[in-house]
Amino acid sequence: AQSVTQLGSHVSVSEGALVLLRCNYSSSVPPYLFWYVQYPNQGLQLLLKYTSAATLVKGINGFEAEFKKSETSFHLTKPSAHMSDAAEYFCAVSENSGYALNFGKGTSLLVTP
Amino acid sequence: GAVVSQHPSWVICKSGTSVKIECRSLDFQATTMFWYRQFPKQSLMLMATSNEGSKATYEQGVEKDKFLINHASLTLSTLTVTSAHPEDSSFYICSATGDRDDQETQYFGPGTRLLVL
Questions:
Q1: Which residue of A60, A102, A103 is the best one to mutate when testing the B interface, meaning the one whose CB has the most B CBs within 10 A?
Q2: Which of A1, A48, A113, B69 is a Cys-bridge partner for B56, taking CB atoms 3.0 to 4.6 Å apart?
Q3: First-to-final CA distance of chain B
Q4: Are A45 and B110 in contact (CB < 8 Å)?
Q5: Least CA distance to B108: which residue of chain A?
Q6: Is B2 left (phi over 0), alpha (psi -120 to 50) or beta?
Q7: Closest partner residue to A42 among B97, B106, B110, by Cβ?
Q8: Does the pLDDT at position B100 exceed 70?
């Protein structure tokens, strides 16, 4: 079964600093990997996804993630944090197109002035 | 594109009553819809997967007689919480995939917050 582990339930960065949110996956087949963002009392918005094409994936709002098979990782980064980036971030994996997602426990990002 | 709506956005009901939540794909045909539940400060847990015209597939531990799912059309799925109890209070989120080039991507609705008194 596919699963993801998000390291760090809370991450705090200063405005303008690098954002790094960690996600490691476990999968017996080439995975589909996703990062979603959730603002308070809202649904999930897709940031970016990896579907076995380019290993460096660029998403919305300046975020990107790199698929590293050797490290079984799909960490999310952003060069410069904005206050508006404060939210809950979920990494997710599925084993095939159209299959259900297995979510990590989420990482709450706090951006301080 | 790829907009998914949910209705209602929040609902308060008395214990023992039933509540129906609708999930609609507004600009694409959703061949598969998923229902998730999220408790405060926790991740999303898959409840069931529904394909249009078929019976839903429920995850282990989810009571199919309590959480009735109907996916009667390619744009609508409903979740009915029957005889709701306070422990059913949660945030219910649906997602959909369908007739798009990015069939691997699930598009999520805004969620429905249920409070059972």
A1: A103
A2: B69
A3: 37
A4: no
A5: A44
A6: left
A7: B110
A8: no
**Residue of B44, B102, B103 lying closest to A103 (CB–CB):** B44
Cα A8 off chain centre by: 12
Cβ proximity of A66 and A2 under 8 Å = no
Q: Which of A52, A51, A32 is nearest to A94 (CA)?
A: A32
- Torsion, Cα B19 B24 B30 B31, to 10 degrees, reads 20
Residue of B nearest to A46 (CA): B107
Provide DSSP, B45-95: EEEEEEETTSPPEEPTT--TTTEEEEEEETTEEEEEE-S--GGG-EEEEEE
pLDDT tens sequence across B61-94: 999 999 999 988 889 999 999 999 999 999 999 9
Give CA–CA dist B95/B57, Å, rounded.
Answer: 15
